[in-house]
Amino acid sequence: MTRPHAAAAAAALACLVIGGADWPAFRGDGSSSAPREANPPAEWSLQSGENVAWTADLPGRGVGGPIVVGDRVLLTASDGPRRERLHVLAYDASTGAPLWSRQMWATGRPNCHPTSANAAPTPCSDGQRVYVFYSSNDLAAFTLEGDLAWVRGLAQDHPGVGNDIGMASSPVVAGPAVVVQAECQGESFAIGLDRETGQTLWEVDRPRQSNWASPLPWRTDSGRPAVWLQDQGGVSLLDAATGEQITRIKADCPGVPSPAGEGARLVLAASGVSVYEGPFAPGEPPAPALQAGRLQPGSPTPVVAGDRVLVVNRGGVLACGDLASGDVVWRRRLGGSYWATPVVAGGRVYCVNDDGEASVVSLDDGEVLSEADFGQAVLASPAVGGDAIYFRGVGTLWKIARVDTATPPLPSPAPLR
Predict the structure, then answer these.
(1) Per residue in 229-254, pLDDT tens?
(2) Sheet of strand 129-133: strand arrangement
(3) What mean pLDDT value characterizes the chain?
(4) CA-CA distance, 312 to 359, in Å (whole number)?
(5) Integer Cα distance of 396 and 59 in angstroms
(6) What is the pLDDT of residue 62?
(7) Backbone angles phi, psi at 105, to 5 degrees
(8) Where are the beta strands (DSSP E) in 206-277?
(9) What is the DSSP letter of 206?
(10) Residue 97: closest CA among 73, 115, 117, 78
(11) Are 393 and 376 in contact (CB under 8 A)?
């Protein structure tokens, strides 16, 4: 059921102020591929300081990834006896200096698995504000200078939402809305909120099944802002301003990897990897243009890089497939278990397993170019900004860029002023 708000019709479809070097959300633009000109280092060492531009110690714990907006790196953390204290953190991308930090208290259930955190979702930005979401279903908007714009405790209207493992779906900006999926075996819903005011534009009921997949922003063939929502029975394309369903594709989707896309191509972790070609118009949904059963994603979302797709399976094997034929181009056993989705930049694939062991792999032929060890658990997907790549461990943020030596670790951000 769709419940549009009366103000939806008047919501401004403002253009997002996002630069080409930005990484504004989980998986960047939804493909996990950086712009062609991005060129982070192919190797680094925390032991020698090679190509480690700076390191920042974080308050609390988090498994949500960083985002890059202009000269800022933004991310979240949580701490406290029940993980109920919520942090929003901003760092100077050039120096690693803490710019500001803000704290809030959770209003929903902060419970989560010990390996996760209340700060599990990755933030998103429209270039003017940063939108932060937590497993406790608390959602807030801050300006890039750290001023609170609005805050919503979604569990206040939905007391049945949440589970003991934790919620992890990341918010996205789509047209006039910030879109959030909050889905579990209890009370499940998706909601679109006005980016400027936090007012509800629309809300839809969702299947009562555990689901950690994140929405995927989209534009229809006519340029209409839309968003894909995935559940275990398929994906639905909704109008971003009203929540009205445009089309639905039935597919057997798992509950962790999210839909991916590039241009008019939609890629799902379904029956291996399923590829759908737009436009996606109302009416009969398209049949898959390709189903590659030999590509079997694990928890990480498939990565789209031009005419190739990359998946990491449950055994720690990275596989590269051809999006036209479905053939496997190469495979490389990396080892370990993976939660973080890899990213592609400069013709290389940057992977990091749960133990913090990173591998840089050639996109062309799968050759392992370098390896590095962060020395702590890394469950967050990295972010690329220009010629730098940012990795977030459970308690540390690293900027990897071309430098000769590392700067000393920076202190935690200043307390809320």
Answers:
(1) 999 999 999 999 999 999 999 999 98
(2) 124-125, 129-133, 138-143, 148-153
(3) 91
(4) 12
(5) 9
(6) 95
(7) -110, 140
(8) 216-219, 225-231, 234-239, 245-250, 260-262, 265-268, 273-277
(9) -
(10) 73
(11) yes
